[in-house]
Protein 1
Amino acid sequence: MDFPLSLSFLLLLFSFFILNTRADLPGTWELLIPNAGIASMHTAVTRFNTVVLLDRTNIGPTRKMLRKGHCRNDRYDAILKHDCYAHSVLLDLQTNQIRPLTILTDTWCSSGQFLPDGTLLHTGGDIDGLRKFRKFQPCEPNGACDWIELSEPELADGRWYATNQILPDGSVIIVGGRGANTVEYYPPRKNGAVNFPFLRDVEDGQMDNLYPYVHLLPNGHLFIFANNRAVLYDHQTNQVVRDYPPLDGGPRNYPSAGSSVMLALQGDHSNAVIVICGGAQYGAFIQRSTDTPAHGSCGRIEATGLNPVWELEDMPFGRIMGDMVMLPTGDVVIINGAQAGTQGFEQASNPCLHPVLYRPDQPVGLRFMTLNPGNVPRMYHSTANLLPDGRILVAGSNPHFFYKFEAEFPTELRIEAFSPEYLSAEKANIRPKIETIPETISYGGVFDVLVSVELPVVGIVEVNLGSAPFATHSFSQGQRLVKLAVTASIPNGDGQYRVGCTAPANGMVAPPGYYMAFAVNQGVPSVARWIHLSP
């Protein structure tokens, strides 16, 4: 009789421990949308506080219908030759309402980037979308904006699993793709696609060179990483100007992808540090091994240094397919993914439900903090994006070729938001609010931001500019945070403070376009105001 009682007590104690461990970890989760209609493979936040969610087209029925009269005929679709289902939707963050969007050509594993005027440029895909340029010019939430497929120009090379990055002049470079060891530009340059042998050289027996990590450095060059190697690329001359040392720990790009981020640019904005975390072991993709443990290591390198070397450290969890999201504070959240397997359909297991906070200013060994876990597995084809209110939007997960809802890891239509600890109730009295800020600023310009805070300000109030990246396949293309030079906060009466700011010096530090401007007080960000940065 004693044994069952003891066992019951132990189970109760274990359950109590698990529940309290969850409750004690920082961050909170909320369900925003029970059914978005589609599983978002690609996600981007617009300056109108709407979110573009995009899947691939040749996937059969979704759970969202197109508007009447907007069906499409697709001879390439194996299931639906006459398709009346939406494969892209627009989410209004104010109302949580979903509006279907019309996409005509296949967007499977495509790439994107916002242009200086706020238009989302979208490139490539598969089959009839392989050479396509598309545009989405966002509008007010009650508007009728929709995808536009350009008949011309077309991509010089087909782009499937490519990466886009806006450049200092506002043009966009498109790097790589399956079978495309080249780069090209939008607007197209006269020479079309330019050979980029680096991508061919790093390809291995399972590729591992797709969706390369591309970061625009403040010296105007591009840090391009694929597999386990990186180069510094001059996009004006189309020449490699530096080779970086290899990163230990195996492949890091698709189909073995971890994730990557460039840390916040601060001070005089001349120094850039790149961090790359996680990945699959080589061979897991070829062998279709779902239980091979993922890498837990991160590499960090000062890309603009004289003699850069990789500094290695370990995350609390091994992780494949994680998303690295830059917070307004300069910290990074690593979220989504699995602890075993690789990218690809039904090729991963053991979902990594715990987000992790990476604090770059801490010493090695103290940079990672485990956060409150979610309960929705976000596996292959998941996304994570920073929202203007400081939350992280988490969407997608479809590790199946079509939509499949009866599975261990089903197609996921729910959209969630993760709130970092800085949004906790006990920090509400130090959370700043932007009262006034210019709508447009120019390079090198000086301007004031008026903020209000419930408790008196002690120390510096930061004003930081965050880009709106295009998130897909564990990498946020064009992600960037620039900490502006600011003056001390001057009291302005009634709990308000005036902060003097200096805009970035040029497009190498921050390419032209729309940014989320956050005021940050003692590590707590305001709700962002959109600001346009232009020459």
Note: The helical segments are 2-24, 197-202.
Protein 2
Amino acid sequence: MGIRESHTFSAWKWLGFVSAVWVQTISGNNYTFSNYSDAIKTLMNLTQLQLNNLSVAKDVGKAFGLLAGLASDRLPTPVILLIGAIEGLIGYGAQWLVVSQKIQPLPYWQMCIFMCLGGNSTTWMNTAVLVTCIRNFRRNRGPVSGILKGYVGLSTAIFTDLCSALFSDDPARFLVMLAVIPFAVCLVAILFLREIPQSTSVAAEKEEARYFAIFNIVAVVVAVYLLTYDLIGSTNQVFSLVFAVILLILLASPLAVPIYAFVKSWRLVGFEADMERQQPLLKEETMSPPSETKEIITEVAAAASADDATVLVEKTKPVIGEEHTIMEAMQTWDFWVMFISFLCGVGTGMAVINNMAQIGLALGHADVSIFISLTSIWGFFGRIISGSVSEYFLKKAGTPRPLWNAASQILMAVGLLLMALALPGCLYIGSIVVGMCYGVRLAVTVPVASELFGLKYYGLLYNILILNLPIGSFLFSGLLAGYLYDAQATPTPGGGNTCVGAHCYGLVFIIMAMASLIGFGLDVLLAIRTKNIYTKIFNSRKPKKSLAASNGQ
């Protein structure tokens, strides 16, 4: 591969990553239910249990993400993105028709179907983005996961703040955004997101580290900008319009990385031409003696034969850290420890996110948009910090990634207990803590799964883990929160109900805190069981660093 060709591939890879960031920026629409749930509850005269089950139907859509996982190894990335875009347009478009009262409220079962379609749409988007980018940046899985999942975390805040700034929190217009904007962004990403041939050079790895630092900085600036807007707040139309324009510019700014990479590749045209003129001389100088070449070939053939023999012996039972089929992964204890600990983390987080509107009203807050944004923004910080920090300590000390999940579970339990006490300001602190810990869990588990079970079947493996979102939503939100809330609630005219006071969700928070502690224990167990794997990953990078140092002398 020529120098210019190599850099051109690199530029296209970064352009694909930018489009992936944009897709993730709009694929957090599943976390926005609280923005329009009250409108649906009022229009359809639902109880809290019925409303929560609608939310569960939305999350059940993620269970059908298994289809996206199976398709990821059989269909090209653009087709997977297109399926997700069309599903989202239909699912959220139907909800908009109901909330805007363009049509009569649909039967409950039909609303469940459209909720499910909207929820499933993001699994196709996330699968296309994560599988492609993890494969394109195999040596930086932590930062890739942190950045992409971080923008998913910001997605809710971006949609919420844009709707607040431009449409005064109108739930009907909010649903128009959820239907149309993801569809348009996915159509753009179809043009650029695809797998790119890898470069394994030390220089390429250092370049990736520099560029990821830029993406991290931009993402943090976007998060701080959104947080500042939430804290300041404004009803001034001009101010809101300026906010929206600056936000869009910030979201477009990562384009500077692939543009720079393209310019860099064009500058190398002349350099490559000079290299080609010197090629005969270089070949003579670098050619190995025949005897040496023959010896190398013999050694490689012997090593290959040994590897083949090992594969034949051990093919039926790969060890952790090697490529696993889905059935092989599911036959290990480590998979189920990771699966259940993931359930404890994301299930409790989803319950708080889905019920934020009612939690806020129960604790005396008429406007809950600030809490929804805080959960989203701090979810971003949890994702992006944990991705980069876990990668740093893995490279520096071989620290097992599951330890970061364990730390997040302890903090989650503290946040839930604070909300159970219903102290003044507890919902502000609780929103921040739950958002951050939920973000850590999502960002860290993505690379953990690939490191323990390989990348070959990663698309399907990822979507099996994501089954925890609908399962957790059903257990903690649909059953636990729904039943306990209705048991405390007072019926309202028309068939709904309402509840005000700390008792509405107090027991729910305590039970979820206990579940978080169970998750903590499982994460510690997984860290102990996989310590050898992370030690091997750490040691495998030592020779490369030593070689790079010696070459520089």
Note: The beta strands are 490-491, 497-498.
Protein 3
Amino acid sequence: MAKKLTLLLLAILLLQQASSGESRSITNDLPLSMVSDGVLEKTPKPNSIWLPGRLFSSDSCDQTYGFLPCTTTVLGNTFLIIVYGYLMFLSAKLLSNGSEILLQILGPGIVGGFFLPLLSSIPDATIILASGLSGDTETAQSQVSVGMGLLAGSNVMLLTILWGTCLLVGKCDLENSVAVDQKDEKRFSLTGSGVSTDIWTSYAARIMVFSIIPFVIVQLPQVFHRTSDNRLAILISLIVAISFVIAYSLYQVFQPWIQKRKLALSKHKHVMSEILIQLKTNALGRLLTNDGDPNKVVIEKLFKTLDQDSDGYLSTADLRSLIIGIQFDDMDINIDEAISQVMRDFDTSHDSKIDVDEFFKGISRWINKAKRVAIMERGKLPPSMKLLEDFDKKTKKEQDQFMDQMDEVVEDVKNVKWHASKAVGLLLLGTIVAAVFADPLVDAVDNFSTATSIPSFFVSFVILPFASSSEIVSTLIFVSRKKQRTASLAYSEIYGSVTMSNILSLAVFLGLVYIRNLTWSFSAEVLVIVVVCILMGAIASFRTTFPLWMSLVAMLLYPLSLLLVYILDYVFGWS
């Protein structure tokens, strides 16, 4: 948290240093002795950054809150968008971290299903509100396209760029139309590699498609050429969107798919790390070589030790004896489920027993996974002796974060008051940062649009989704583990984020348009959202395996979406 506060203060300091200054140009015909230092000059100081040239020319501008810097120059507004965008990204991270702490204390039910989606939507909601609340009706009508650009850009970016990138990062070899976990030998084969998800992820995609109904309702007057009913359609769509937010949140409370999946994944990883620690303790030698590679001789000796009946195979009974002898730090571990998970990871021949070769390859995969986690955390590989201990601590911490505490009392969590105070502090700080800097960010985007003659919708469509979204990095980390379980979780988060944007962010936008009596002129933008959601949702609803070539199709939809809006608005005159 201290690091985030330091970065926040640094960004604010940069804004302060960007405040207005003044100088005069030196012409060639003016002697240096005649140059004034400006001390005795009485000319009024401008309220904007001044730089020469077409890209740098500046007129007067209104400072947000009366003190934040402003400019009408291209480069000046580019700088402001970067700084304000980073502050909004920092706000999203603060809200995300605070939400995770609350999840540890209160459990995934109400917190994970209701509060977390609401909190994660605060940055988007504040930007949308700022785009239409400030100024008179004419100014609000001009700037509200920034909010629509964010709304459309977030959905399209998640379903095209992030969706396709997840497929590239998480790809595995396809065998019998199913991705094989952690096997990536075909590299970039467009048809031979890809990603598989579970059926629950398909259900999440279907819910996402269902969530576009409010967009369809608000467009009905334009479809039937009854523009006089626009306000009624906006009001009905607003009511439907709010109803969907409540229904979806309650559904998540009672069916927390993503939270349960995170918990199951973290438990499995911790069981894996504990087994590695146990094997290392019982090994007749070092389990790892000096280079951190699996020691084949020692692992084969371990296999013979675990093979109680010496038949050359490890059965479920042998695995049960191993797992029962492990102390799991009072974790609620289902022994039968743990045995099944180990068998699934090791038994590649699917004959319900593990031979020595499968045992060595399975242990090697687990050790390599521990290496990847260590490199991700430290940036380098730790000494081989600390590798498994560090991996065990990491998995234990991750398991604690997602432990289902629905039936536990709050006192079971250590330092509850401290963690609760920290969570509240992070949430308040994130909300304050979002509320304060959303308006100047919208002003900077609007001024940049004016300076470059690029419509503000396109500027916000491309830039703002990356500033207000904090789940991009975590989603890519999940899918990089190259397993069906983690791929399902990553894509479920994408579909869930788009669903909340379609209903919650849209509800905020519709409320703003209705209350301020703004004109609804976003037919092209809505069409893009509907088309992308239906197309990507239909693909994910009726199949669970996605070949690599689909990533190219998904990413191609992003520039095509921008092109479609431009053609409809500026060629066919929809706007």
Note: Residues 19-28, 32-36, 38-58, 403-412 have pLDDT under 50 and may be disordered.
Protein 4
Amino acid sequence: MLRVSFIILLVILIPQSGNSRSFRENSNLIYDVIDQISHSSILEVDVKATTVTCEPTYGFLPCTTKVWGQLFIIVVYEYLLSLAEKYVSSGTDLFFQMFGTGIFGASLFHMLGTIPQVGLVLVIGVTGSTDTIEALATMGMGLLAGSTIMLLTLIWGSVIAFGSYDLSQPSDSSDIENKRPFSLTGYGVSTDVETYYTARIMIVSMIPFFVLQLAKVLNSSSGIRIVVLISLLVTLVFLFVYCTYQVFQPWIQNRRLEYLMCKYVQKNLLPSLLTGGGRPNITIIRELFHKIDKNNDNHISADELRALILGIQIKEVGLNEDDYEAKVMEEFDISGDSHITENEFIKGVSKWLNKAQQSAHNQGHDKPKFFNSNSKKTTEEEIRLLAQKKESKGTDRAWLNYIKAAFLLILGTAITVLLAQPLMQTLQEFSTAVNIPSFLVSYVVIPLALNYRQTLRAITSSRQKTENAISLTFSEIYNGVFINNLMGLAIFLALVYIRDLSWDVSAEVLVVLLICTVMGLFTSFCNKFPFWTSILAYLLYPLSLLLIYVLTTVFGWS
């Protein structure tokens, strides 16, 4: 409106010019001004037409074109994604603890734990448009590779860093006076034989990644498609063989079950059996034995042992009674006659308490973590619980745990599905705004949320500073890498093949192959890891980022 008024004012002033020359000059001036105004108006229209606006995902989720706003949204999505991983992990662990070892423990529950990782890839692969699917697929491969590398570098190194002890003495030694000063070579961790057997199984998951490298040799798209199909079939075969092997050889399941249930035993029954000074209370233990021994034959049978299991509140935490009953009987029954005498019971419980005390001592506490001043009251409550047979109540509690586990699993899956598309879209927009490759963002950012809780669990377990705790933690890492590699790769390759994506074998595939192979071979033939190996493990993570950068920038890999 202002421009129009200005033009009208100039036109009105034209007749006031004194001669034709001045009239022509004023006319030319007016035309120049009009031309400039028109040109600026056109530029303004073009700027308005090219203004970038964001479109909310699902029509209600927040969006922004500002870098700091995108960063804030990513942080919120990361927190929600960590909650989803927490719910899925809690649900699958609860299911596994209730069902115990067997067909379900070997396959279903272990695979369900990978829902946050593979769920993100699956959702973006199914819902992605033709224009964005290839970029999103590359980001999906980045997050799968990033999770694996983080497990074998940062988390693996943290287990050694927080769990190291004097290697010249047994891990359960309490001889503080003869311990040597800390050194990079004298301190570290040791593992059992089953741990490096698990590491060798982890190496097998590298075969499909090796097959994919053949695609780099082939130039035709049809040849690459065949390589993808072969690698997919090999991955599915390995998954089937792995699950079948665990059914007939359940030692992997047993170790995982032991890893999950260790913390529950120490938190419930053991605090009530300590004296004020933190030592085993023989009087209370003996009294507990006679409370369990219902027929007063000075032996605890398998049926009577179930009362002990109920006292530890196995049902409440979801553990399977039969599995735990067998483990307790095996550890307590020294004579092997399927009955536990009073002396065997006292020795077995005292052994539990000593292990708990040693774990607390290694973590730098004067008393066990579970110790409290209300020990006497807790003892009376536990004995009262042990004196009652609550089979019907235990059954009701088991059904509640089934419902709880299913609810947690469904809730975590729903959050993952809801966040997949907006998270990937925001990461892609953020990487474009700050000029960083999108796959590098997904390689680092998403695995932080997905592996946060597992990192805390690994550190907490390793701080017990015992060979058994370290071995179980490493086994959990190696099993996690195996399942993450095969499940993630199977879903990803299936999407590439079914949707016929023009995906070239990315740099992340080669990095996973190299890091996993090196770590797998190293851990397959060693059972002692000095502290300096944790430093090397930490350095492998930035080295993997550098390798990806070189492959993509210098050699032009995707």
Note: The mean pLDDT is 74.
